[in-house]
Design brief:
80% helix, 4 helices, single chain, 0% strand, 88 residues
Length: 88
């Protein structure tokens, strides 16, 4: 159970860090009137880059890949609240 809690913590910290970075990238793009890509496209590109880095760094290691897999508990506890409470 302790290993599962640690895995959930790693995923939560990673996801929240990505949310903060994506938010700031969107704010920077808005500040400099960069309209070539929207905030959603910037966020998807950031996720793509992080996914490529994660896959390259893990090297097929199952223990590392297990930490980033999406499950329902992680979705409801970490990903869904920012979607619901998004302030525009």
């Amino acid at each position: 159970m302790l290993e599962e809690d640690q895995s959930m913590f790693v995923r939560a910290v990673l996801m929240l860090g990505l949310i903060v970075v994506a938010y700031h990238l969107g704010a920077i793009a808005h500040k400099f009137h960069f309209h070539l890509l929207g905030e959603n496209a910037i966020t998807m590109l950031l996720a793509l880059i992080v996914g490529i880095i994660w896959e390259t760094a893990s090297g097929g290691n199952e223990n590392i890949d297990r930490d980033i897999r999406l499950n329902s508990k992680f979705f409801y506890m970490v990903l869904l609240p920012p979607i619901i409470f998004e302030v525009t």
